[in-house]
Amino acid sequence: MPLVKDFFIGLSKNQLLNKAAKTYGLKLGAQNVVAGTTIAETIESIKKLNAHGISCTVDNLGEFVFEKEEAIKAKEQILQMIEAIHTEEVDAHISLKPTQLGLDIDYDFCLENLTEIVKKANEYDIFINLDMEDHLHLQPSFDLLDELSKTYDNVGTVIQAYFYRAEDDIEKYKNFRLRIVKGAYKETEEHAYQTKEEIDANFIRLIEWHLQHGKFTSIATHDHHVINHVKRFAKEHNIPNEQYEFQMLYGFRKELQLQLAQEGYNFTTYVPFGNDWYGYFMRRLAERPQNLNLVVKQTFTKKNNVLIGLTAGAFLLGRLTKKK
Ligand code: FDA
């Protein structure tokens, strides 16, 4: 299984395939997990979820941006989405990735972009979540949060349970609204737990701790074992529903999403939009190769075959050049 995970994580960073994916649009089955390419389409998807009592956190797809122009374009897109959330009066907030807003270009440039976004969202009482990326960007992202929270209280972030330092971070940021996840990137044992058992155990520990000591907790997982554990734990410790929510990604375990909302739990769906879906989608395959079934259901058009061919080629190349 780790080999499969490494393979898809490797693919998620492949620039050539990323470009091809953008060119061919949402044709590889990604439309099952991406809510729309335009803001108007995405607002319609949000309205449908809201009608079922589900709130949304909206992510303008894209990450690891190295051109200032591209980062500014992303910022404009996010500002327009904030405006649309406000005018359309939908129940939604924003998730964003600091590397999309220029963290790899220049820290101050990224902070400027983020400040503009958080300020605008604050005017409309809209929450901004800083998604957490790989280890390289972990501390700079916390630094951004520290800086932004000096002026604004509508920001929060993510704690990734695979990191050894997660326990310290969750304590330090206990007064923030936090999303707790297992962690989606490939990390070395220098920084992160490697086995499923260790990661799951830390995930549960962190969730229990934040439920009892922290502000609002977003438990982001598709793992029904964890969800059932949290339900039991909250009941046994008299933790009111208002203090936490469950989160899942758009298109995944749709029936369970509806069921949790119907049972009266706060529920938020992570709604990605735009055409830069490739890295996001490959990480979903890394987590769970069965997610490929979201792809194979699609008709194999000529263009799809090009992308599938490129993917298979990259796989074979990866296998042949693998050191061990
Ligand atoms: P995992 O994939 O570990 O599966 C555990 C078990 O759950 C499976 O064995 C199976 O039994 C069941 N299961 C899972 N998926 C299923 C499915 N589709 N159908 C049926 N059963 C299924 N990561 C990160 O590093 N930074 C971030 O900012 C975020 N943000 C984020 C937001 C949201 C809303 C979510 C849901 C996730 C993230 N993540 C993330 C990703 C996260 O770190 C993690 O990689 C994935 O959620 C996968 O782990 P899970 O806990 O969902 O289950």
Structure description:
By secondary structure, the chain is an alpha/beta fold. The chain has 2 domains: 1-30 and 285-324, no CATH class; 34-276, TIM Barrel. It contains 13 helices and 8 strands. It has helices at residues 2-12, 15-24, 39-51, 68-87, 107-123, 138-149, 166-172, 196-213, 224-236, 254-262, 278-287, 293-296, 302-321, and strands at 55-60, 92-96, 128-130, 155-160, 178-181, 217-220, 244-249, 267-273. Strands 1-2-3-4-5-6-7-8 form an 8-stranded parallel barrel, surrounded by 7 helices. α9 links the parallel β6 (217-220) and β7 (244-249). α2 (15-24) packs antiparallel against α13 (302-321), α5 (107-123) packs across α6 (138-149) and α8 (196-213) runs parallel beside α9 (224-236). The longest helix is centred in the N-terminal third of the chain and has 20 residues, at 68-87. The protein is globular and about 50 Å long. Residues 298-305 and 316-324 have low confidence and may be disordered. Dihydroflavine-adenine dinucleotide binds next to β4 and β7.
Summarize the structure.
The chain has 324 residues and is an alpha/beta fold. It has helices at 2-12, 15-24, 39-51, 68-87, 107-123, 138-149, 166-172, 196-213, 224-236, 254-262, 278-287, 293-296, 302-321; strands spanning 55-60, 92-96, 128-130, 155-160, 178-181, 217-220, 244-249, 267-273.
